[in-house]
Amino acid sequence: MRHAVPALAGASCVFGFAPFYAWPVPIVALAALFAVWERTNTPRAAALDGFLFGLGYFLGGVSWVYVSMHDFGSMPAILAALATLLFCAYLALFPALAGWAARRYAARSPASILLMSAAAYTACEWLRGWLFTGFPWITLGNSQVPSSPLAGFAPLAGAYGVTLATALAAALVAAAARPFATRGARLRVLGAVAAVLVAGGALRFVDWGAPAGAAVRVALLQGNVAQEIKWREETRTKTLVDYRRMIFDANARVVVLPETALPAFFDEIPADYMASIRDHAAATGKDILMGIVERESRPGGSDYYNSLARITGERQAYRKRHLVPFGEFIPPGFKFVLAVLHIPLSDFASGGKGQPPLDAGGTSFGVAICYEDIFGEEVIDQLPRAQALVNVSNDAWFGNSLAAEQHLQSSQMRALETSRWMVRATNTGATAAIDEKGRVVSSLVPFTEGTLVADITPRKGQTPYVLFGNLLALVVTAALAGIAWRIR
Q: Among this protein's residues, is 13 annotated catalytic?
């Protein structure tokens, strides 16, 4: 029964994330985990409890990967289920490592163990977002965006800073709930919890940037092309015609199409089709950002790029730099996966670092394609020059699951970290406009064809997170670990 507590606590965390947004739940769940760690006798036992917490956390939060592998990757159901379980088990190793470190390096006192638990959990979550190209999906800090007072730490120290604040609040809650704590001790600890919440809430009122010009009207197109027919030859013409109609009908200065909106290589799109769009754009003053697949010849073959291109005026293009393992590239030694996982275009090349923002409608847009916007330090590479952020995605790969809403919440975190508007154009959802406070201002109904028109405000300035990235969160985490280690 004791082992059920961390597993259930981990599974409950899914309710802290979109579409539920119940931000207190992860604090309480993490407090339960930390209380279990405090009562364990060995680092090995704490690691097991951390693993069980992580298994519940990720099976509840990211088991939608089964949909992409089975429904759209044609992997047999048993293999897809096994692969999903193994993937979640891998992710669960990070909270397991946190539990081991919390008991291995803390002094023999409850305060030391609880503080070390908060520091270790944060450090291992950062490690999860970096190791083997990283997978920072449902980072704990995201659960606090946009409504929790703790979200106020995002412009200061990013998502991992919010994770640290959440973990610290959880450690204090666990301390207050100790059976033998005196009434005075409980009041002092609860006062510390309140102080953390008040500090975060106060930071939410700080304006970390300023308007950089007049509002720009942006149209975000959602074609709602089913993934299972997207690349079929008989579907291509209808998709081209529908998107051209949506471009022509859009009443906006900037028009954004989703990731790989047109199901063809850019050089295969009929010349007269592109000419008609450019002529329309020139006549109406529109700038069009189009999600496309580019290819370039090289000796011995071709390189393929997942791109967002401005096809009007002087052509610009951003090429995706952070590719999805097994979805957009196959890691060395795993070519055998292609025998059971049939995903088109799984051999993309990276666009590389240092790419400039795209200019459209008199505004400079920092670009993230697909899940690139879950990597905060990569998004800020284009700042402070970027006056707004744009994400184009195709979350149809994950069906009608939690993935699209969770992805939207990551975009909300990026907007809050950078004090920039974020607009998202997706194939099936979640297409949305997010303000600089991380709030969804408007959105389209998922799995419908439509155009979302939003007036966004270009912004300038740098948040501390833009200046320092994850450094501040990591320094404070290390300092907290040092304090915990010194407590006797």
A: no
pLDDT score, position 342: 58
Which among 259, 294, 377, 417 is annotated as catalytic?
Answer: 259
User: What's the confidence (pLDDT) of residue 339?
Assistant: 57
245 in the same domain as 203: no
370 is catalytic: yes
Catalytic pick among 38, 124, 125, 320:
320
Q: Which of 370, 372, 417, 437 is catalytic?
A: 370
The predicted pLDDT at position 211 comes to: 96
If asked whether residues 454 and 481 sit together in one domain, one would say no
For the chain, residues with pLDDT lower than 50 are none
- Does the predicted TM-score (pTM) go above 0.90? yes
As for how many domains the chain has, the answer is 2
294 is catalytic: no
Q: Which domain holds residue 419?
A: 210-462
Whether residues 9 and 28 fall in one domain: yes
In three state form, how does the secondary structure of the chain look? CCCHHHHHHHHHHHHHCCCCCCCHHHHHHHHHHHHHHHHCCCHHHHHHHHHHHHHHHHHHHHCCHHHHHHHHCCCCHHHHHHHHHHHHHHHHHHHHHHHHHHHHHCCCCHHHHHHHHHHHHHHHHHHHCCHHHCCCCCCHHHHHCCCCHHHHHHHHHHHHHHHHHHHHHHHHHHHHCCCCCCHHHHHHHHHHHHHHHHHHHHHCCCCCCEECCCCEEEEEEECCCCCCCCCCHHHHHHHHHHHHHHHHHCCCCEEECCCCCCCCEHHHCCHHHHHHHHHHHHHHCCEEEEEEEEEEEECCEEEEEEEEEECCCCCEEEECCCCCECCCECCCCCHHHHHCCCCCCCCCCCCCCCCCCEEECCEEEEEEEHHHHHCHHHHHHHCCCCCEEEEEECHHHHCCCCHHHHHHHHHHHHHHHHCCCEEEEECCCCCEEECCCCCEEEECCCCCCEEEEEEECCEECCCHHHHHCCHHHHHHHHHHHHHHHHCC
